[in-house]
Amino acid sequence: xxxxxxxxxxxxxxxxxxxxxxxxxxxxxxxxxxxxxxxxxxxxxxxxxxxxxxxxxxxxxxxxxxxxxxxxxxxxxxxxxxxxxxxxxxxxxxxxxxxxxxxxxxxxxxxxxxxxxxxxxxxxxxxxxxxxxxxxxxxxxxxxxxxxxxxxxxxxxxxxxxxxxxxxxxxxxxxxxxxxxxxxxxxxxxxxxxxxxxxxxxxxxxxxxxxxxxxxxxxxxxxxxxxxxxxxxxxxxxxxxxxxxxxxxxxxxxxxxxxxxxxxxxxxxxxxxxxxxxxxxxxxxxxxxxxxxxxxxxxxxxxxxxxxxxxx
Length: 312
Hints:
Blueprint: H1 3-19, E1 26-27, H2 33-41, E2 47-50, H3 58-61, H4 64-71, E3 75-81, E4 85-86, E5 88-90, E6 93-96, E7 98-103, H5 104-112, E8 120-123, H6 129-133, H7 146-152, E9 158-164, E10 169-173, E11 177-185, E12 187-193, E13 204-213, E14 219-223, E15 230-232, E16 254-259, E17 262-266, E18 271-276, E19 281-288, H8 293-310
Parallel strand pairs: 1-2, 4-10, 6-13
Antiparallel strand pairs: 2-17, 3-7, 3-8, 5-6, 8-9, 9-19, 10-18, 11-17, 11-19, 12-16, 12-18, 13-14, 13-15
Helix pairs in contact: 1-8, 2-7
């Protein structure tokens, strides 16, 4: 390991100790906008907020029976993979899910086990799919979170609906959004790492590909021939390969479970890996981050990490 890498490795844990909690704190109610900005958005720290959307009818309404009646015939985008890992590294490829148009009822049939299908099914299309594909459900919640919109001075860029099987996993990545993740039913299990851990998180460049189910039921990986290579994280935080990625020993992951009726504030640029209970339903709000001096400092850290790890 060269001198630059050694300095980054030594500095990272010290930087984290300056501002990070050892666990994800809980708030017992919706915060005041200015206080939330000062305590959480500005410092870029996650928290779990209870009772923040207890007034949403969705918490009591969104049973399988209600959803079948309300939107059962609606056609929606569904991600299908052989193993539950969509948008993840598999060997030397970055593989995206096969995307199918299916009726909402047919997805519920699979989740409830009344219909057997090959693969793992997950409603996870992150293009404001709640507003675009399921507008009938908007009256059961809010199209934005008022105190967050006030704190940031903007409306969310996207409102996404999530429903899937227990085997559906979101591989570790980061997003340029201030994220409010609301669990309606079931549980979500998060592994979180702060942006300051970037020197310890490995990246690679991978050929883009997509899963495609064949007539016999097996899945084939099909390359996206004309696409650029995708930078992605090959490490699985559930079973990290410390021989291959020894620098990850210095990372400081935080683990938390977000239960029904709870909201996770996931700050911009935090790395996260997500699992869920079977049939978990969630809605999240993406607010575009500010591309301010903190973003520029992170870009500097990312560049230094790439130089150090590339030459170590």
